[in-house]
Design goal:
- By secondary structure, this protein is an all-alpha fold.
- 56% of the residues lie in helices and 0% in strands.
- It has helices spanning 3-17, 27-41, 48-57, 73-88, 97-106, 118-129, 133-146, 172-176, 188-212, 221-227.
- The N and C termini lie far apart (43 Å).
Length: 232
């Protein structure tokens, strides 16, 4: 059975059995991560089935950002995935299960588990790219809204005179986590894409800053200087 056949089977099973209720971690997220992973896999000697499976099941257990067990999500997801593969997909190659488990365990930012295989590095990069660019912009406000967080602090939106708090303000999450992601990327292609997409978020911040000052036609150049990646 080829990877495309496995994708169809996983997609069908996930669609029927998985309903996380989280717009940022739904079936469409799994599909996008796999699509990005395929870009990162190009020209690499990699086990595509391991990557595919980890992409589709990495968030089968996913606690909210403010949940006390958040850092355990990926390990629990890896355990659940192994059980699902055994019970629902008995023809899945047993020699690929360990690689899938590790890739799922290592994908999480909060778990702090370093990826040891190229497959795990690709899955981690593909998942983190979902937090950047236009998709990342949509997801951060969706997640923050579901948690009851404000869009930003109206008195000090860019935390010039206060501590960052991304549990209270969605915009703070850009600096608490998202703009740090390019430095954590595991592959060269992933790093380049992450820098490009992080720069998009910085330009959003600069546009927001200008609008808050009453200027709807320009961006705040100071914000670009402070946070931009200055890509060529």
């Amino acid at each position: 059975m080829n990877v495309i056949d496995w994708q169809h089977r996983f997609d069908q099973w996930i669609s029927q059995h998985f309903n996380h209720g989280d717009a940022a971690h739904d079936v469409s997220h799994f599909r996008r991560v796999w699509k990005t992973a395929q870009t990162l896999m190009q020209g690499q000697q990699v086990d595509a089935l391991v990557v595919l499976t980890a992409c589709y099941f990495h968030d089968i257990v996913s606690f909210a950002k403010n949940h006390p067990q958040r850092h355990q999500s990926s390990v629990m997801a890896a355990e659940k995935t192994a059980a699902i593969l055994e019970s629902e997909f008995p023809d899945f190659p047993q020699n690929a299960v360990a690689g899938v488990r590790h890739a799922i365990e290592a994908h999480s930012f909060s778990a702090g588990i370093a990826p040891q295989t190229l497959e795990a590095k690709i899955v981690q990069d593909a998942d983190r790219l979902e937090s950047l660019g236009a998709i990342g912009l949509a997801r951060v406000f969706a997640v923050s809204g579901s948690m009851g967080a404000a869009l930003f602090d109206g008195e000090d939106p860019f935390a010039a005179e206060r501590e960052l708090d991304d549990k209270a303000f969605a915009l703070d999450h850009f600096r608490c986590k998202l703009l740090k992601l390019p430095a954590t990327m595991q592959t060269e292609q992933g790093r380049k894409l992450a820098e490009h997409n992080a720069d998009y978020l910085v330009h959003f911040m600069a546009k927001l800053s200008a609008e808050l000052q009453g200027d709807h036609q320009r961006v705040d150049e100071e914000v670009l200087r402070r946070f931009g990646f200055h890509l060529a």
